[in-house]
Specification:
It is built from 22 helices and no strands. The protein is mainly alpha-helical. It has a single domain, classed as Sodium:dicarboxylate symporter (Proton glutamate symport protein), CATH 1.10.3860. The termini are far apart.
Length: 448
């Protein structure tokens, strides 16, 4: 008889912010002081990620298909999809512009000290790319061949075999299939598709329940994932990291500006206190930091925005999965600053048309990065650098040296940006007039 109360107590304790924070600190301490033990924890962190990955694709397919089908049944589908697309594209272009402006203002690759240049050259010479390129601050850099970036991007969207896309976890192709399938189900005569949509709705709700259950292990999993990462970062030579300090600072500054902009958008759209969105979405943000997986945050984002910020849940169930896949705000900022960093490092002057190309190519490359690891995201920089003739291959080792830090920043920005897009597109829930943050709202209404 006492089993369920004790289980509920366990869930409450493990879901609390203090438990998650304790797991994070414990992982850092183990990584710094017990590196051998930290290495042994890595499989348990991977097990947690595998559990999340097991749920992700059924959750994505069922959420998008059911939401689109219901949207077509009730009418106004074209208008809603158009609003979602417009909001995503507009926010992506703004984020790309901020990344580009940050790269120009901070200029992380310009006027580096000679010792920093030597450290960067040593990283490149020790990598397997050094046979192709070497860092030279003078002369004309080698040219590279255009690899048909647009054709490659289109090929990454359209699946030739949906079962292959499912088996390899190609989220972008799975999303494209889900969109087309949802439209087809929605256009089926009313009544014939009710059994299918009902079954998929049960799948979606079940996946949400499974995700919440797995997330109760987050404090332990966070400890197991952070410990090896902290151990690896402690063993990393400081020379390359110090030499890339300006680059990392530029990335963090650009991400912070975009994050603040999104916070203002959410605050204005939900009519809540300025700190309320961060408080409401803290579980999703911590999950993003711990897992570095945006898709794993979908249920937490939906719950936080619906239950605590009063956004309509039915709208969120369509917008959030779409946004998590397509709203790649972290990579779009990363691509703009990184491309300018390479140009500045090699003292290559860019013109207005080339800046415009970087702006729009950053958006395309960012969308193509969906579901990719940090290494894959860095690899997609070829879509920007190759047409500009920038020696991208030489800089791969430099970006990999600091990617563990920047990957966290990119994931958080992806998740929070999706919340901003959802606040723009989705309506407020009529059953919930105001967010449940009276203390914060009272503070905001106080005297200035």
């Amino acid at each position: 008889m006492t089993l369920f109360p004790s289980l509920n107590g366990w869930v409450r304790v493990m879901s609390s912010p203090s438990a998650v924070f304790a797991g994070l600190l414990c992982g850092i301490a183990i990584g710094l002081f017990l590196p051998d033990f930290a290495a042994g924890l890595a499989p348990y962190g991977k097990l947690f990620l595998d559990l999340l990955g097991m749920i992700v694709l059924p959750l994505l397919i069922s959420a998008v298909t059911v939401s689109l089908a219901k949207l077509f049944e009730t009418g106004g589908a074209a208008h809603q999809v158009g609003r979602i697309a417009a909001a995503i594209v507009a926010c992506m272009i703004v984020a790309a512009g901020i990344g580009l402006a940050t790269g120009l203002i901070v200029a992380p690759g310009a006027d580096l000290e000679q010792t920093d240049i030597a450290s960067l050259g040593e990283v490149v010479s020790n990598s397997d790319r050094q046979a192709d390129f070497e860092i030279s601050m003078v002369g004309t850099p080698p040219t590279v061949k255009n690899d048909q970036g647009l054709a490659r991007f289109i090929a990454q969207i359209v699946p030739d075999n949906i079962f292959r896309a499912l088996s390899v976890g190609d989220n972008l192709k799975v999303l494209m299939f889900s969109l087309m399938f949802g439209v087809a189900v929605g256009m089926t005569p009313r009544g014939r598709a009710d059994a299918l949509t009902g079954a998929l709705e049960i799948v979606f709700q079940s996946c949400q329940s499974m995700m919440k259950g797995v997330n109760t292990l987050l404090p332990l999993a966070l400890c197991a994932m952070v410990a090896p990462l902290a151990s690896d970062m402690a063993a990393t030579p400081l020379g390359p990291v110090r030499a890339m300090a300006m680059f990392v600072s530029a990335q963090c500054i650009g991400a912070l500006v975009v994050f603040v902009l999104f916070a203002v958008i959410i605050q204005q759209r939900t009519r809540c206190g300025i700190l309320a969105p961060i408080t409401a979405l803290r579980e999703a943000l911590v999950l993003a930091i711990g897992t570095r997986n945006s898709i794993a945050c979908i249920p937490s984002v939906i719950d936080g925005m619906s239950d605590k910020l009063g956004v309509n849940r039915k709208d969120l169930e369509l917008v959030v999965p779409l946004g998590i896949i397509l709203c790649r705000f972290g990579p779009v900022v990363f691509f703009g600053i990184s491309t300018l960093f390479i140009a500045q490092l090699y003292r290559i002057d860019l013109g207005l048309s080339q800046y415009a190309f970087i702006l729009f190519a950053s958006v395309m490359a960012a969308m193509a990065s969906s579901g990719g690891t940090g290494v894959m995201t860095i690899g997609l920089m070829a879509l920007l650098c190759n047409p500009l003739g920038l020696p991208f291959e030489a800089a791969v080792a430099l970006f990999l040296a600091v990617d563990p830090i920047l990957d966290l920043v990119r994931t958080v920005l992806n998740v929070y940006g999706t919340c901003a897009v959802a606040s723009i597109v989705c309506g407020r829930d009529s059953d919930q007039e105001a967010p449940e943050f009276p203390a914060i709202n009272t503070l905001e209404r106080g005297p200035v």
